[in-house]
Amino acid sequence: MVNLQEAPHLFWDGRVQSLEAQAIEPLTNPIEMDMTPPEIVSRVASQPHYQRAFAAIEVDDIRIEDIVGAIAAFERTLVTGPTVFDRWLQGEKDALNAAQKRGRMIFFTRGQCAICHIGNSFTDHEFHNVGTGTANDLGRFVVTQQAEDQGSFKTPSLRNWKGREPFMHDGRFASMREVLQFYSDPPAPEVGESELDPLELEEDEIADLLAFLETLNGAWPDLSGYAAAWEKLVSP
């Protein structure tokens, strides 16, 4: 949940359009927290520290909108730090080593990565079929009921990809190398029509791509000050 301030769709199938709408889903989903909105409000409103926290922003009658709004407001602060590639873009031409420069060329040319992974967050925020959908997992189609969306899933951001393993919507790949190997020689899709062209990458090309992808990782949000700020907010 980082760098999502401007995301127009959330969840792999894009079924909600705001962080507020996203926040309520795990709270109410039967296979997650499985609560009703009134139950959520009752639990939160019964806790003195939450009462004081909401009172600090002039909310005395806590509603579900206030709860998911608070969660979303926090999530919007979760922004990752500058990357090596950011430095290169800003003119530091020696920021990338030789392997990373070769990987950059593959990424933006024959690797076709930038068709979907573009912009500051390296995602087009759109939905694509790369052959990972199944008959029981149809992706965007569940939302739109459009045949062309069968097997399509939201393009994930590549900014700060490391540490978010496993990859793909179903977590089928444990490493980025496995993802690149899949793109190099993808199997026939189970559902829909895959947009992938077999890349037929050589091992040295995969190594260079991995080297470049490493440059897209910056510092994770610093949460060290939140505990003290929370204690100050809720102290009687």
From TrEMBL:
<dbReference type="Pfam" id="PF03150">
    <property type="entry name" value="CCP_MauG"/>
</dbReference>
<keyword id="KW-0560">Oxidoreductase</keyword>
<dbReference type="InterPro" id="IPR036909">
    <property type="entry name" value="Cyt_c-like_dom_sf"/>
</dbReference>
<dbReference type="InterPro" id="IPR009056">
    <property type="entry name" value="Cyt_c-like_dom"/>
</dbReference>
<keyword id="KW-0479">Metal-binding</keyword>
<feature type="domain" description="Cytochrome c">
    <location>
        <begin position="98"/>
        <end position="217"/>
    </location>
</feature>
<dbReference type="GO" id="GO:0004130">
    <property type="term" value="F:cytochrome-c peroxidase activity"/>
</dbReference>
<dbReference type="InterPro" id="IPR004852">
    <property type="entry name" value="Di-haem_cyt_c_peroxidsae"/>
</dbReference>
<dbReference type="GO" id="GO:0009055">
    <property type="term" value="F:electron transfer activity"/>
</dbReference>
<keyword id="KW-0732">Signal</keyword>
<keyword id="KW-0349">Heme</keyword>
<dbReference type="GO" id="GO:0030313">
    <property type="term" value="C:cell envelope"/>
</dbReference>
<dbReference type="GO" id="GO:0020037">
    <property type="term" value="F:heme binding"/>
</dbReference>
<dbReference type="GO" id="GO:0046872">
    <property type="term" value="F:metal ion binding"/>
</dbReference>
<protein>
    <recommendedName>
        <fullName>Cytochrome c domain-containing protein</fullName>
    </recommendedName>
</protein>
<dbReference type="InterPro" id="IPR051395">
    <property type="entry name" value="Cytochrome_c_Peroxidase/MauG"/>
</dbReference>
<keyword id="KW-0408">Iron</keyword>
